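dude i think i finally got it to work??
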Amino acid sequence: MTRAMHDDRMKKEADFRSRAGLQCYITRKTDGKCCEWCDKMAGRYEYHSEPKDVYRRHDNCGCSVTYENGRQRQDVWSKRTWEAPEPGAGAGDPVVFTKEQAEALQAKHGLTKGRSSGTMDLLDNIELFHGGDSISGDQKKTLEEALAPVPEKLLRQLSEFVKEIQIKDGREYSSYDRKNRIIILDQKSAAKDIVHELGHAFGDMIGVYEDPEFLRIIANGLDLQDWKNVFTEKHPKRGTPVYYYKGKGRSKFVIPYQARVYVDPAKFGKDNIDPSLFREYISVGFDFYFNHPKLLKTSDPDLYHYLEVLINGYTD
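look at this
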């Protein structure tokens, strides 16, 4: 079957499903290192209602755009096709919290509605380290806009946990120093990265990687018994090896970066893959919960509902 014939068949099937009341979708995902335009285009859209520009890409664009027709999938650029597994195939039971379980989870992590938090403004603790100057009014406004979706009480609690936020010029990437609880932001991408890096701090603050329920959610649907599912790549900035899970169940990750595995090279291939090594799972999930909630809820409903329960502990 030629590519043109296959594309035409996929379109006809999509139109048929649409007329029959069955929905098809266009999903655009970023690679976690995208530009502001690509970040805004990311999402899941009903077929025929997607933005016209959703199919566009620029040089070195790392986004993916997938056409979903039932269980059929097609990369709209490469035309690669595959079939998605049955919902829940290979996965454990979905996470469903009763009201009592949600309250117990919140209490376990020290979260209660109406909780009184610190009064220090998170952004009052930011400095520009390339010259030691304080953050400017315009820069603070941009960061405030990026933080707008996050509940105020949660920001106040994070301001007590995070000891410092640094903005450095020319760093080229942002990071979170777990040992010292310091967020370091690249000046050019500070507004885009700040919620992601706060996600790391949020995970450490409430200890999600010590929570068996959270670790079960990470492992759900993945094959963590075979290290052949973990591939080695080079860090685009530092040239050091980085590892990504690319095995069964990887469609749950909203972007490839969420599947990064932080493993000591000396321990690579030994024992099973520990779910606590997926350190970007919480930070990317936290970011997408606020900025692309529909995509997160569709790709990984278990993580979405887990975060929903925890974050509701910071709302009135």
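The longest helix spans residues 3-19.
im so relieved honestly
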